[in-house]
Amino acid sequence: MELKEAVAKATETKELVVETGAIDRVGEVLRRRFAGRGAAIVADENTQAAAGRRIADHLAADGFAPPRTLIFPGRPMLGPDYANVERVREFLREGDEVPIAVGSGTINDLVKRASHELKRPYVVVATAASVDGYTSFGAALVKDGFKQTLACDAPLAVVADTEILRNAPPPMAAAGYADLAAKIASGADWILADALGIDPLHPVGWPMVQEGLRGWLERPSELAAGSPAALGRVFTGLALTGFAMQAMKASRPASGAEHLLSHVWEMQHLTKNGVPVSHGFKVAIGTLGTTALYEILLSIDLPHRDVESHLSSWPSWAEREREVRAAWGGSEQAEQAVIECRAKWVERDELDRRIALLRERWPGLSEKLKGQLIPYGELREMFRAAGVPTAPEEIALTRERAVATIPLAQTMRRRYTILDVLYELGLLKECSERLAASKSYWR
Ligand SMILES: [Zn+2]
Prior knowledge:
Helix content is 57%, strand content 10%. By secondary structure, the chain is α/β, with parallel strands linked by helices. Strand 6 and strand 7 (146-150) form a beta hairpin. The two termini are 36 Å apart.
């Protein structure tokens, strides 16, 4: 899909400027989209130094009133706490300027939500190609002690200067690369859910991400070397993923089983050398894990596999509920997991029908899945070249802990993925054990 066409199909974002020197076009965007209203900049000390100051100077030289600025400290790392949203909101309320978020994940989420509460469209100037959250609706924030996605509109305009992206710490672009590569595995999950009539492929959400995906992931070593072109490719892919989510008001185009694994690790607050492990790096290990599970599943002769004894012991919902609660050991997440599992629970007759359909469609479906996936060894090489971790130990997980996450991740959300297919076929344990015993997967 052409970039122009993708922007036209985005429901909230109207401008996407990704190029070298893009930062000097903020004034142009303000004239075109906001009738030349002035700007209020929200940044932290690092992003202010990287980009905020130059935007302010440029706007002043371009005939705009000097922007008001709210600068958060560079250290400790800014948290996605709702109290910070309130600070941004009160700062913005003192004027009527266009909010400009200068930063990546957290700054963008804070300004996104604060602008939404003030009903004011905003602009983000991205300083790292690190996440697909720039252009997604909703912001991941901690409110009332819980990390949650609060509803809010995506930015009206996104500006990414590849020269600035280049100055961000290299692990940030590597994390963005992994979050983008995850769409290969989550695409396979969507193909599965579509084939079983659970979640049809969306006419906009599917092609917007999948058509360009392999191209955006090309030449990962150039990304690691800081090539503006490679950074631009990854940023564009991440932005378009956000547009696909805008179009569907759902995260299906962006996330599957690999993100469910990462969500479990997110709750465990993994840190390496005292620094929180990035979203993208957790997703990387999740993506390799689900790719491995796909390869194991694809090695099984499903149409002839005997699943009768498994089916005859299919639990009742009451039994299943006890199982889910036990898996979460009375933690707060247990309640949510029960709700999510209930939403995708099927009785025995429905399960029989589903498995019959899967067996019947498997010859064509397995070919489609193979076409979608990147072989594990190849994906691992791409990750290594991009500077992305490939083994659980690199994100402060033991191999045992990583494997033990697989059945938990299946219960996290109602989204139907390979984990559900394996669970419903009675193969989840066997495939996890094969992954654990493997000499190549997660090594
Ligand atoms: Zn993600």
